[in-house]
């Protein structure tokens, strides 16, 4: 084999560790960012949390409205191609098919691009990203998260009631086990046999004894509050509530007819098939309608009110408030200080590293640079969110004045072109980021919607059309609910071209039942 040298020109895309981190931080939600900051604080000794205000970097909020540089376009263009280091490796291998695979992989370098010098005072490496607070007023108040944690769970509520029962140790243990086996809605999803098999695998005699104790405990559980807890199905849950309601009632009371309905296939009740239920139960249509109306007032999920409300807490990233009145008002867009981690480089550790150069100095220097870039990338993340939010508010001013009916069509490309960013960057910014408005808290993606044609040649936002459908349904006659075709005709009267299938799609997205299920009995 003859050896020789050759020159080959090729193009490949490479992302620095700083850029990869910037992309990853940009797409994180508020909760994920908080976890990332906590992890970085544990791993990097040069990072610390501060309560003091620190000066921003040169590219901070002061320059949030300046046009993007050409390098920003290249950066955003790069993010559209490379999502993971594995993808980068694959792209490189395709561009260089003859490259050797024995080259050692270099460790990520945080030395930067050479534009950042070691400054005497590392206190400048921070931002006005305050640390998380509990919104405590001199220790006297509690925020929503603290209140959510103090809420009693369904299991605790049932255990407290079980303390008043005089049970044998075996039945008490069985009752505690069943209580802990309930799901969030208060249902017992597993059968008693499967629960017993898990406790005594391979011992059939012991399994039979466990099932016996479970059966006794299940009967006790059905008599605890809230009524219906421990049910194995929706029909059993409704029946438990009807039996508790019908104790002492006359034989011809609506609850007895409702019990007969619950004993039938549940799909007949879901379809409100009055005629079929009347034939099966032998009751009149009037009594069937009264029983269905009674069932509609029952609670299908007994554990609903005990679900931890912390899961439903949404902390907005951006706050929009109205300033001024009359024709002089405007909307102020600002970042929520409670979600912005206030970080800085540890001055003492950084100073000690500068004055003592010994073994491991290079590794520690990289950790210091890593801390600086992490702070910069967090600042850049919030700056980008603020820029995008400002552009959204400017485009959707009518929404902030009149509500969702005034929403205009908007796509990611419009914001991307206005800010000089790539469309993928706008998509990352608007995912899992929330904005607090005078009409509630919405995800940034909520303000984007496709366009539907109008008779005048203009466009209407799909969000506004959904709001209009919701308004039509809210004001309809319950005895004669509007069909999808009728709603489509009503939209055409408003000058909006919307087919029946599109109306059905929007109605399902709004979780509005079909006309036959909305009809009042």
Describe this structure in words.
The structure is a single chain. This protein has 521 residues and is of the alpha+beta class. Among the domains are: 154-221, no CATH class; 234-306; 451-518, Homeodomain-like (Arc Repressor Mutant, subunit A, Orthogonal Bundle), CATH 1.10.10.60. The protein is built from 23 helices and 8 strands. The chain has helices at 17-26, 30-43, 70-79, 85-95, 144-149, 154-162, 169-180, 192-199, 204-221, 234-246, 254-262, 266-270, 274-281, 285-296, 347-355, 361-395, 397-402, 412-419, 423-430, 462-474, 484-493, 500-509, 515-518; strands at 47-49, 318-323, 330-335, 343-345, 434-437, 440-443, 451-453, 459-461. A 4-stranded mixed sheet has the order 3-2-5-6, with helices on one face. A two-stranded antiparallel sheet has the order 1-4. A two-stranded antiparallel ribbon has the order 7-8. Helix 8 (192-199) crosses helix 9 and helix 21 (484-493) crosses helix 22. The radius of gyration is 31 Å and the shape is extended. The model is unreliable at 57-107 and 112-142 (pLDDT under 50).
Topology:
Layout: H1 17-26, H2 30-43, E1 47-49, H3 70-79, H4 85-95, H5 144-149, H6 154-162, H7 169-180, H8 192-199, H9 204-221, H10 234-246, H11 254-262, H12 266-270, H13 274-281, H14 285-296, E2 318-323, E3 330-335, E4 343-345, H15 347-355, H16 361-395, H17 397-402, H18 412-419, H19 423-430, E5 434-437, E6 440-443, E7 451-453, E8 459-461, H20 462-474, H21 484-493, H22 500-509, H23 515-518
Parallel strand pairs: 2-5
Antiparallel strand pairs: 1-4, 2-3, 5-6, 7-8
Helix pairs in contact: 1-16, 6-7, 7-9, 8-9, 10-11, 11-14, 18-19, 21-22
């Amino acid at each position: 084999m003859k050896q020789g040298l050759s020159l080959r020109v090729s193009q490949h895309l490479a992302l620095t560790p700083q850029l990869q981190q910037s992309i990853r931080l940009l797409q994180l939600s508020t909760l994920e960012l908080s976890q990332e900051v906590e992890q970085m604080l544990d791993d990097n000794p040069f990072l610390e949390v501060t309560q003091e205000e620190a000066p921003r970097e040169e590219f901070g909020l002061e320059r949030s409205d300046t046009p993007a540089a050409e390098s920003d376009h290249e950066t955003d263009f790069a993010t559209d191609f490379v999502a993971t280091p594995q993808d980068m490796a694959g792209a490189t291998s395709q561009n260089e098919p003859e490259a050797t695979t024995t080259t050692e992989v270099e460790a990520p370098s945080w030395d930067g691009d050479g534009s950042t010098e070691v400054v005497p005072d590392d206190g400048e490496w921070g931002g006005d990203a305050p640390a998380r607070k509990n919104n405590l007023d001199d220790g006297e108040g509690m925020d929503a998260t603290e209140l959510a944690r103090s809420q009693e769970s369904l299991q605790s509520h049932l255990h407290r009631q079980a303390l008043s029962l005089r049970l044998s140790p075996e039945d008490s243990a069985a009752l505690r086990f069943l209580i802990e086996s309930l799901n969030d809605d208060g249902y017992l999803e597993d059968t008693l046999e499967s629960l017993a098999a898990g406790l005594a695998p391979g011992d059939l005699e012991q399994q039979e004894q466990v099932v016996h104790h479970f059966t006794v405990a299940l009967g006790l559980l059905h008599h605890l509050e809230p009524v219906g807890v421990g049910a194995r199905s929706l029909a059993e849950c409704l029946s438990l509530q009807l039996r508790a309601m019908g104790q002492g009632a006359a034989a011809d009371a609506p609850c007895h007819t409702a019990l007969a309905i619950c004993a039938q296939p549940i799909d007949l009740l879901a379809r409100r098939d009055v005629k079929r239920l009347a034939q099966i139960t032998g009751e009149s249509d009037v009594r069937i309608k009264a029983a269905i109306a009674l069932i509609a007032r029952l609670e299908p999920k007994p554990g609903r009110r005990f679900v931890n409300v912390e899961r439903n807490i949404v902390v907005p990233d951006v706050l929009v408030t109205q300033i001024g009145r009359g024709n002089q008002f405007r909307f102020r867009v600002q970042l929520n200080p409670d979600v912005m981690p206030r970080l800085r480089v540890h001055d003492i550790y950084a100073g000690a590293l500068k004055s003592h150069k010994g073994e491991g100095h290079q590794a520690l220097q990289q950790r210091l640079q890593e801390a600086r870039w992490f702070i910069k990338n967090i600042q850049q993340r919030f700056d980008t969110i603020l820029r995008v939010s400002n552009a959204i508010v400017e485009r959707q001013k009518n929404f902030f004045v009149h509500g969702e009916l005034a929403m205009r069509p908007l796509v990611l490309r419009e914001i991307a072109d206005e800010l000089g960013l790539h469309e993928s960057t706008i998509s990352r910014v608007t995912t899992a980021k929330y904005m607090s408005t005078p009409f509630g808290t919405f995800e940034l993606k909520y303000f984007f919607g496709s366009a539907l044609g109008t008779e005048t040649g203009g466009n209407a936002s799909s969000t506004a059309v959904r709001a209009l459908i919701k308004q039509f349904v809210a004001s309809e006659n319950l005895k004669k609910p509007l069909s999808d075709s009728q709603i489509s005709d009503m939209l055409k009267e408003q000058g909006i071209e919307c087919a029946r299938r599109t109306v059905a799609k929007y109605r399902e997205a709004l979780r509005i039942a079909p006309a036959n299920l909305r009809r009042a009995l």
